[in-house]
Write a structure and sequence with these properties.
The protein is of the alpha+beta class and about 220 residues long. The protein has five helices and twelve strands. A six-stranded antiparallel barrel has the order 1-2-5-4-3-6. A six-stranded antiparallel beta barrel has the order 7-8-11-10-9-12. It is globular, with a radius of gyration of 20 Å.
Length: about 220
């Protein structure tokens, strides 16, 4: 599990095409400190497994599913990437609960600079918009952010100078893709309440609603 607090702005140093997958080599002296084979590192919000590491660099295999569902497929040698190690048990949850499982990609639409911060508008797939709420949390390229405004096919975020300077969001321009991970709690709530059409959980939601009404009636009778 991650928190969306980027530790280091790394760099892609090599990409090997393996046909049905790719092997990435990335520079990240901070995240590779005390690294071990099999460790997890989030790369632009995507949880990858360390295959090998040396001299401040590590390699990770990226399967076709990940390349197709995230923006990692658009990376090239020299691309900058956000890197984060998993949160340690007992560590601070500085951002929010981030799994490193990208739900889809968005596109930077426009940036509106201010004196000390920038407002960024990002388009997202309509299927993900129901999970995004004003003042809620969302992960963009592995960065935990607060939603300023949420629309049917977009949302906006405000970026402080630290985020602009220390993450890839400071260099993303209109048209650039970004990885999106919505708040996992919203997806679980939807599933439990049967809000997702075709899940077959409507009966469960109805039962839960009936139980709630019964409990409310019993409470009023006391």
């Amino acid at each position: 599990m991650f928190t969306g607090i980027v530790e280091e702005l790394g760099e892609v140093t090599a990409i090997e095409n393996l046909g049905d997958s790719s092997r990435f080599r990335l520079r990240g002296p901070v995240v590779t400190e005390n690294a071990k084979h099999g460790d997890s590192i989030a790369v632009n919000g995507v949880c990858l497994t360390v295959v090998d590491f040396e001299n401040g660099e590590f390699t990770a295999d990226v399967m076709a599913e990940t390349l197709n569902r995230s923006s990692l497929g658009a990376l090239a040698t020299g691309s900058r990437v956000n890197l984060e190690r998993p949160v340690a048990v007992g560590g601070r949850l500085g951002g929010h609960i981030v799994q490193g499982h990208v739900d889809g990609t968005g596109t930077v639409v426009e940036r509106t600079p201010s004196e000390h911060w920038e407002l960024v508008r990002i388009a997202l797939p309509a299927a993900l918009s129901r999970y995004v709420v004003e003042k809620g949390s969302i992960t963009v390229d592995g960065v935990s952010l607060t939603v300023v405004d949420a629309g049917p096919d977009f949302f906006t975020i405000s970026l402080i100078p630290t985020t602009l300077a220390l993450t890839t969001l400071g260099i993303k321009g209109p048209g650039d893709p970004v990885n999106l991970e919505v708040d996992v709690l919203a997806k679980y709530v939807e599933r439990l309440l049967g809000a997702d059409a075709g899940t077959g959980t409507t009966e469960t939601a109805g039962t839960a609603g009936t139980a709630l009404k019964t409990a409310q009636t019993e409470e009023s009778d006391r």
